[in-house]
Specification:
Helices cover about 75% and strands about 0% of the residues. It has 13 helices and no strands. The N and C termini lie close together (about 10 Å).
């Protein structure tokens, strides 16, 4: 186990190095400079800014400084926000995105797995048909439509929940439901497919033939194997969702990380673009590794060794 984790971490470091390099090259390939604005600055001001941020140095020197700072987990100063570094922005905004994403994933798992099991057990019955409609609607509607609908009905018409802002449990409900819609649909569909495959396997039929009750067969024999694909898929989903959702955070005025991904591109904030990309890559690698380890715990047949088997 330890050797496998160390090997995966080493692979992850190489992956981060490659991603950081590609991001650096792409950012510096964008036409224009980071201080080009709608209201152009004079040449003296731009020259002083370039000197302040070492942008007048050779490109290889900038790259070396950038990679050295990443090793120290220092993503540098923001070109757009005065007196604020990328690390400061992540420390300030990531907790809200992480809390929102974690709540959304929990809701998706708690509802999606039982819904998938019911859909598989009641295949072609009204329960299955109802869940098919629900998942199709949720996966088809964009986040902003779901968010706006929740705000209109639960916030404006019924007055049950506040329509925006962030901080109280009541303010978390609607953005959590809006962000959980797609993963909920995805988990339900995948759980149904996986459960149907497991229920038709030989060992489940053998367990039924031996007189095992329906609940025991599902819980002890089918569920642990059927849930493995779900756990595997949760790594990338979780990493993506906890780094923030631009649409949901914008609609509900949540001070999260998602809005900055797009804003930093328009602002030509190179350190913010590169820092958030590397930060997301680190989260993705850690989440995928965690899911592999959880899979080996759920199913003892999956042996994690240094060969990765």
């Amino acid at each position: 186990m330890a050797k496998y984790i160390l090997k995966r971490l080493a692979t992850g470091i190489v992956t981060i190095f490659v991603i950081a390099t590609i991001t650096f090259v792409l950012c510096h390939s964008i036409p224009g400079g980071p201080f080009d604005r709608d209201k152009p600055l004079n040449e003296t001001t731009i020259a002083n800014l370039n000197a302040k941020y070492n942008l007048d140095a050779p490109i290889y020197e900038q790259y070396a400084d950038y990679m050295f700072d990443i090793v120290k987990f220092d993503f540098g100063p923001s070109y757009y926000y005065k007196n604020e570094t990328v690390n400061d922005y992540i420390n300030r905004c990531f907790p809200a995105s992480a809390l929102l994403g974690t709540c959304a994933i929990i809701v998706a798992i708690v509802i999606g797995i039982p819904a998938g099991i019911i859909s598989a057990l009641k295949q072609n019955h009204w329960q299955d048909n109802l869940l098919k409609i629900m998942t199709t609607v949720l996966v088809s509607l964009p986040n902003f439509v779901i968010a706006a609908s929740l705000m209109y009905f639960l916030g404006y018409k019924l007055g049950w929940l506040p329509v925006s802002m962030w901080g109280t449990p009541e303010q978390m409900v609607m953005p959590t439901l809006a962000l959980a819609a797609y993963p909920l649909s995805f988990i339900t569909k995948m759980m149904k497919s996986s459960m149907l495959e497991v229920l038709n396997s030989d060992y489940v039929r053998t367990a039924k033939a031996k007189g095992c009750s329906g609940f025991l067969t599902i819980y002890k024999h089918a569920l642990r194997n059927a849930v493995l694909p779900i756990v595997t898929s949760l790594g990338p989903q979780f990493a993506g969702i906890i780094t923030g959702s631009l649409v949901v955070e914008k609609i509900f005025v949540i001070p999260g990380l998602g809005q900055e991904f797009t804003k930093s591109i328009f602002n030509r904030d190179y350190p913010m673009i590169m820092g958030l990309t590397v930060f997301y890559s680190i989260l993705l690698i850690v989440c995928v590794l965690a899911c592999d380890i959880i899979n080996s715990i759920i199913d003892p047949r999956i042996k994690i060794t240094e060969e990765g088997k």
